Amino acid sequence: MSEIKKVKTTDVDLKDRLVGLNRVTKVTKGGRTFSFSAVVVVGDENGIVGIGHGKAKEVVTAIGKGVEDAKKNLFKIPLINGTIPHEQSSHYGGAKVFIKPASSGTGVKAGGAMRAVLESAGITDILAKSKGSSNNHNLVKATMLALQELRDAYTVANIRGVSLDKVFNG
User: Fold this and answer.
1) pLDDT (average), residues 15-42
2) DSSP conformation letters of the chain
3) Which residues, other chains included, contact 169 with Cβ-Cβ below 8 Å and sequence gap of 6+?
């Protein structure tokens, strides 16, 4: 398996997107305590993307914690002309995702949580399908796993120990 490239936050200009916001309740002896849980995706729209989760008593604080967590988990995704190098499927929990490269001009054909991750990564043409659970948290993580498993031709050539021509010509 190829190594996943982590990225430092100081190198890039990141944009954040809120994927999901839930109000959660904790029942205590003194009554119910309400807090908020936020799932956030950050990316530079040029191949770098990360996801984060934040919980706090206020919405703004939860989103801020999610953004900080996402900045700690940034990854570099291989892109070729605005799409991915090959098909990939992955799952996390009950969420299953399938992503497939698309020709130029197709656009991002994906649903809510997946769309946020793919657009933040800078992918402009892709076909994506989610199966199973529609839980935002699991869908985002499954999409990230699928993107992290992608390999470009240079990585494949290095792993096999052959030249780039041999990868394509056998």
Assistant:
1) 94
2) -PPP-B--GGGS--EEEEEEEEEEEEEETTEEEEEEEEEEEEE-SSSEEEEEEEEESSHHHHHHHHHHHHHTSEEE---BTTB-SS-EEEEETTEEEEEEE--TT--EE--HHHHHHHHHHT--SEEEEEEE---HHHHHHHHHHHHHT---HHHHHHHHTS-HHHHHH-
3) none
86-125 pLDDT per residue, tens: 999 999 999 999 999 999 999 999 988 999 999 999 999 9
- Can you read off the two tokens belonging to residue 31? 């009554």
Quickly tell me which residue has 């809120």 as its tokens.
18
Write out the two tokens for 56.
């706090």
CA distance 95 to 31: 34
- Please report, for residues 24, 73, 116, 141, the alpha-carbon distance to residue 144 in angstroms, rounded to integers and kept in the order given: 25, 11, 11, 5
The Cα–Cα gap between 109 and 83 comes to: 12
133 Cβ neighbours under 8 A, 6+ residues apart: 93, 94, 95, 139
Token couple for 122: 């800078």
